Amino acid sequence: MKHHATDAHTLVAAYALGALDDDERKDFDAHLRTCEGCRQEAAEFEATTARLAAAVSQPPPAVAKAQVMAAIDGVRQLPPRVPAPGVAPALGGFVRRRAVSWALAAGVAAAVLGGVAVWQTQNGQDLEQQARQAQEQLDAVSAVLAAPDARTVHGKAANGALTTVVASDQRNQAVFTAADLPAPGVGKTYQLWLDHDGTMRPAGLIEHDGTVILAGNPADAGAVGLTLEPSGGSPQPTTDPLLLMALPA
User: Fold this and answer.
1) Which end of the chain has fewer beta carbons closer than 10 Å to its terminal beta carbon, N or C?
2) Residues near 227 by Cβ (< 8 Å), separated by ≥ 6?
């Protein structure tokens, strides 16, 4: 591993996302045997990554298989991509840092965009917009999750939803994920809040299982709240919180 021993702790996210090369992973496995903090953090990152993918996954459209099978005979196969001779892949810290975002993007994008590409020609413009939105979400989420100071906390809302918050002081952002979130009901939505010394400030809406970047400034907030509000949200909570979870310290 081409890092000083004191830098090993910063590789937890890359390890959990499978972004280390074989030698680095072997060395980090050895580090985990002697570092309880990194073992716990790696487990939390792995659980969070799986939850992120599950929360934003979408089934392929019902017509996708029939359209693919109908069109497959008329699709010309492309030749294999062969690297230009003499071009070596870039190495070093830059690749390693970017690998974290690429690994997360690959894992979550497979869930977000699964079943979309096969019918893109029939729904080009709509799908391109969806792809751009999904990519923007992936970029924002992966940047927080891969931040060197990213910290994770898990919770459970009063309605049974499983929640995760990943926060980064360096990026001054936090990601909220909900799984098993019951439908809010007609005319209702779930609203997120940041608790600033007892003052609840709106931090975004989430209507179903998924992952969102919390709006607002989490730097001086102490907790994340979740309430059930009228569609469109409210300037202040109108119901008792389903969740009030301390931000990871």
Assistant:
1) C
2) 190, 191, 193, 237, 238, 239, 240, 241, 242
Which among 247, 51, 35 has a CA at the least distance from the CA of 152?
247
Domain boundaries, the chain: 5-83+91-145, 151-246
Contact 114, 58 (CB under 8 A): yes
User: Residue written as tokens 């969070």?
Assistant: 48
Find the angle CA(4)-CA(6)-CA(7) to the nearest 5 degrees.
Answer: 70
* pLDDT tens-place string over residues 132-153: 776 777 778 888 888 888 888 8
Give the lowest-confidence range in 86-90, 199-203, 211-215. Answer: 86-90
Give per-residue burial for 92-109: e unless 16+ CB within 10 Å, then b: eeeebeebbbebbbebbb
Q: Which residue has the tokens 């090369």?
A: 21
- Residue 143, token pair as written in the block: 């940047």
Q: How far is CA 80 from CA 77, 83, 84, 86, 88, in A?
A: 9, 10, 12, 18, 18
158 has a pLDDT exceeding 90: yes
Are residues 159 and 182 in contact, defined by beta-carbon separation less than 8 angstroms?
yes
Q: Under a CB-based contact definition with an 8 Å cutoff, are residues 144 and 175 in contact?
A: yes
DSSP letter, residue 242: S
Residues 6+ apart with CB under 8 A from 183: 208
Tens-digit pLDDT profile for residues 38-93: 787 777 777 666 666 555 555 666 666 666 666 666 666 666 666 655 544 444 44
C-alpha span between 161 and 177 (Å, rounded): 10
Rounded to whole angstroms, how far apart are CA atoms 52 and 70? 34
Q: Which two tokens stand for residue 242?
A: 């389903």
Euclidean distance between CA atoms 154 and 247, whole angstroms: 10
